[in-house]
């Protein structure tokens, strides 16, 4: 029986375990821990809506699949219910990813811009995001106004229950980008006045 006395192997194992512990701690950390009370409250309410939509989707799919396999009969309303919950799940995710700064972005080209121009380009990006999301909210509102009263065939709920998620999600994400824009502007102004 040989023992592993290679110091580099022990160091590698130690490093791997420290990386694993750090990654686990970051994954389990509350992403809103450092935010003011109102920001945490807003994020929690939106999380509750998103988690409720996800739980409803999983429960309906599980119940429908179980019913099909066990009793050879499914629920006619299951697919409609899942389709109506999906926009709420998606838009709560968009809103929270904007608020927490976890939107997928590619910074390759941004890093190629000269450092003195980066703030202006970042502000322009925020402005474009706000404008596009406001336009999406307006178009979605118009869609809900025109077709939101149509009743779903099996669930017998107005389609506006589902499609209004697009209005709230787009408007909420636009506001979140606007808040981030002004916070960044304020931080930069304070740094410039301090120097």
Task: Write up what this structure looks like.
- The chain is an all-alpha fold and 195 residues long.
- The protein has six helices and no strands.
- α2 runs antiparallel to α3 and α3 packs parallel to α6.
Write the layout of secondary structure elements.
Layout (H helix, E strand, L loop, with lengths): L6 H22 L8 H35 L6 H22 L8 H5 L5 H30 L12 H35 L1
Helix pairs in contact: 2-3, 3-6, 5-6
List keywords for this structure.
mainly alpha
Ranges where pLDDT stays below 50 over 5 or more residues in a row are: none
Query: CA-to-CA gap between the ends?
Result: 65 Å
**Continuous helix count:** 6
| β-strand amount | under 5%
| Run of helices and strands | HHHHHH
Number of domains: 1
> What Rg do the Cα atoms give?
24 Å
Question: Which structural class matches the secondary elements?
Answer: mainly alpha
- Rough outline: flat
Number of extended strands? 0
The major β-sheet equals: none
In short:
It is built from six helices and no strands. It is mainly α and 195 residues long.
């Amino acid at each position: 029986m040989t023992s592993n006395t290679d110091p580099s192997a022990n160091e590698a194992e130690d490093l791997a375990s420290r990386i694993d512990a750090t990654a686990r701690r970051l994954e389990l950390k509350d992403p809103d821990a450092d935010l003011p009370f109102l920001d945490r409250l807003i994020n929690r309410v939106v999380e509750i809506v998103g988690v409720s939509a996800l739980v409803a989707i999983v429960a309906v799919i599980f119940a429908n699949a179980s019913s099909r396999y066990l009793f050879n009969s499914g629920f006619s309303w299951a697919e409609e219910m899942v389709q109506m919950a999906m926009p709420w799940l998606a838009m709560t995710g968009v809103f929270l990813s904007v608020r927490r700064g976890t939107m997928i972005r590619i910074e390759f080209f941004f890093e190629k811009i000269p450092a003195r121009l980066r703030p202006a380009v970042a502000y322009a990006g925020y402005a474009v995001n706000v404008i596009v999301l406001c336009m999406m909210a307006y178009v979605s509102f118009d869609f809900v106004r025109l077709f939101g009263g149509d009743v779903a065939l099996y669930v017998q709920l107005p389609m506006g229950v589902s499609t209004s998620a697009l209005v709230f999600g787009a408007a909420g994400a636009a506001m979140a980008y606007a808040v981030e824009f002004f916070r960044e502007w304020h931080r930069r102004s304070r740094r410039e006045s301090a120097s």
